[in-house]
Input
Amino acid sequence: MFDWIVDVLARAGYLGVALLMLAENLFPPIPSELIMPLAGFVAARGDMSLTGVIVAGTLGSVLGALPWYWAGRKFGPERLKRLAARHGRWLTVSPREVDRARTWFDRRGRIGVLFGRLVPAVRTLISVPAGLAAMPMLPFLIYSTIGTLVWTTLLALAGYWLQDRYEQVSAYLDPVSKGIVGLIVLSYLYRLITWRPDTAKADAERSQ
Output
């Protein structure tokens, strides 16, 4: 993957940075923890400017978040509640919990998007609940851009300073990403095991 990313950057420059960061949001196996430090390293060599790399990476990442946002917006909370009423055990969520999550997002969703864009493995996922909660597009873009700008700047600066040791950034952050994914999986399994059908049924009745 290193050689492939290097080849894309060498051929496409800033456009390559933007496209790779866009793809990172659509296909998470392509990590920003590798793309941006490498782009920072290329900037340190003088092939691109550090500012241009950060702007391109931020733009591509924000654009990549939009399809997930629109997917959540298109699906909508009412459809999710109906799905939860039918398959709540496997979703580990009840219709009442959908309402609670939407209420929380209405109150604190902007902060959730801002900090969610700074967390590995959560960066892409945070766009879906933003869409489900029908968060207005302008605040979503503003807070996504701020969070993403901080993230891409830190990674690009790390690659710029470390130069040919930029791979160390990915080496440090990769266990963090895997740990967060592991916690998400364990949380799901716990909710699946402790799910109570009677409670789910009562929630569904209240939602009608």
